[in-house]
TrEMBL record:
Membrane spanning residue stretches: none
Record key words, sorted: Aminotransferase, Pyridoxal phosphate, Transferase
Region (Disordered): 1-20
Protein name: Aminotransferase class I/classII large domain-containing protein
Organism: Suillus luteus UH-Slu-Lm8-n1
Length: 506
């Protein structure tokens, strides 16, 4: 007696264990090829500021439903803001945040960790601190930053940083905006994927003409220094901006490669490096624990090499709420940043700058770095192990930062793209960041399905371990549903706003 033909293994099973025709049809229907076919993508496009911009040379148009205030145009949300708004639409709020796993927020856990110095618990408020601080920051803190960089990266070098090479700013974005505001009409090189806020900066500061470079996962997202040199000569690049260590891929430019990148600053090019994750390095050798990475190590002359470093207390010191950061560079840059700060942000918080002074003492920093690296390396390894158990191996495991750049292509559609995966996890009270936010695409014209970041999400292992496990558990439930029960309930029926019990949108 002949057996019936075997059904394709790719079809999703019905309750009886074999796939029904309806399951197969639904499976085929969920293989979207364009953003207009996907509910998750349409929700993204409906957010103000996320509509494609007109092509170059065409007249600018506005959406009259969005732009109701004359002369005002929405720049679009950064990834964390958009994802937080979508989470709120699904019931998240800060009163119930303990019920959620937030693997999206780009912030480290702020509580005590093993063998680290105690957390700050109070802030002195001398009367003088109630006055405005200078737009370049408190001189004592500027000196402390310069001394720390000299101690960590410039021992034995003739050229040393002084307070005149440091500007204190109220957060990393403020530092980036100050720098962008003083750059003239130039071609600015950036990489894809990279930090989401670069998209808004390159959109808002029109004098920066963005020139993209797509980084190849097959090359572990390395920046090709030789190609960058050619681009400087052939395209006239005047500015190169990058995060290092890199958000979101967790890779790092170090050693010879970093030295070569810094050398480009001596070829009439300004190198802007966002070094907020400079402590989050995970060496294999125990003797390297406690070391960090910075372009400051390879600067020859602090006042003639056009190297701009942005960093602060936010990530390395695990104090994001303090909003105390700095920009380091040639003296002439710092005077320009003082002027842009006078009309952009007015300067950093005065009492918090004073409170930061003891935290920059080199001996304390060494202890802090060592504790941080051990703790976060353990969390990284734990999350990678759990993802492996879910058959979600990471293509390029992170060497640095506290992010995992997760490729979803092997998951069944429509779960294999970042926006849909994100929306499905919201149903499980878990937040991640879709990869498209790291596709620095200032015009927003590209079909999202054509983005090189479309099949990715960024997972943060910044939160405490219990939150990480809660989030990985949720990912496991979503994947199990897709693999075992089909995807009929996925890719649609997403909440667009939080509804009250009366049915009124709030």
């Amino acid at each position: 007696m002949s057996r019936p033909p075997t059904r394709p293994s790719s079809a999703y099973p019905s309750r009886s264990g074999t796939p029904s025709l309806r399951d197969v049809v639904h499976g085929v229907m969920k293989i979207f090829h364009h953003e207009k076919e996907s509910e998750a993508h349409q929700i993204f496009r409906q957010q103000v500021g996320h509509q494609p911009k007109p092509a170059l040379g065409l007249p600018q148009t506005i959406n009259p439903d969005e732009e109701t205030v004359p002369g005002i145009e929405h720049p679009g949300s950064t990834g964390v803001i958009y994802c937080s708004d979508r989470a709120i639409a699904n019931g998240f709020n800060y009163a119930n945040s303990h019920e959620w796993a937030n693997l999206g927020q780009g912030a480290p856990e702020v509580g005590p960790i093993p063998n680290a110095p105690p957390r700050p618990e109070n802030i002195p408020l001398p009367v003088d601190s109630l006055e405005y601080a200078p737009t370049t920051g408190v001189k004592a803190l500027r000196e402390a930053v310069a001394n720390l960089y000299n101690d960590n990266y410039r021992k034995g070098k003739a050229s040393q940083y002084t307070f005149e090479n440091v500007c204190i700013v109220p957060g990393g974005r403020a530092g980036l905006s100050r720098v962008a505001a003083v750059i003239g009409d130039v071609y600015c090189s950036y990489q894809v994927p990279d930090y989401t806020a670069y998209d808004q900066v390159l959109s808002a500061f029109k004098r920066l003409v963005p020139v993209p470079t797509a980084l190849d996962p097959k090359n572990k997202y390395r920046l090709d220094i030789e190609q960058t040199k050619k681009d400087i000569l052939t395209q006239g690049l005047a500015v190169v901006i990058a995060s290092n260590p890199r958000n979101p891929t967790g890779q790092v430019i170090a050693g010879k490669e970093l030295k070569e990148l810094v050398s480009l600053s001596r070829e009439n090019t300004t190198i802007i490096l966002d070094e907020f994750y400079s402590w989050y390095i995970y060496p294999d050798s125990e003797k390297d624990i406690g070391k960090s990475v910075s372009s400051a190590e390879y600067v020859e002359d602090v006042n003639s090499d056009s190297v701009v470093i942005i960093d602060g207390l936010t990530k390395n010191w695990r104090l994001p709420g303090w909003r105390v950061c700095w920009v380091i560079g040639p003296k002439n840059l710092i005077t320009a940043l003082s002027q842009s700060g006078s009309f952009l942000d007015g300067g950093a918080n005065h009492p918090m700058q004073l409170a930061a002074l003891p935290l920059l003492e080199p001996g304390r920093v060494k202890i802090e770095k060592t504790a941080l690296q051990r703790h976060f390396k353990a969390k990284r390894d734990h999350v990678l192990k759990r993802l492996h158990a879910l058959h979600l191996d990471v293509d390029v495991p992170p060497q640095a930062t506290f992010y995992i750049w997760l490729n979803l292509e092997k998951l069944p559609p429509p779960l294999n793209n970042g926006l849909t995966f994100f929306e499905e996890l919201l149903k499980e009270q878990t937040i991640v960041i879709p990869g498209i936010f790291f596709d620095i695409n200032p015009a927003h014209r590209r079909n999202l399905f054509n983005s090189p970041c479309h099949h990715y999400v960024r997972l943060s292992f910044g939160p405490p371990m219990e939150d990480l496990d809660k989030g990985i558990d949720a990912i496991g439930r979503v994947i199990a549903t897709a693999r075992q029960g089909g995807t009929r309930k996925m890719g649609h029926s997403y909440k667009k706003s939080l509804e009250s019990s009366s049915g009124v949108n709030i």
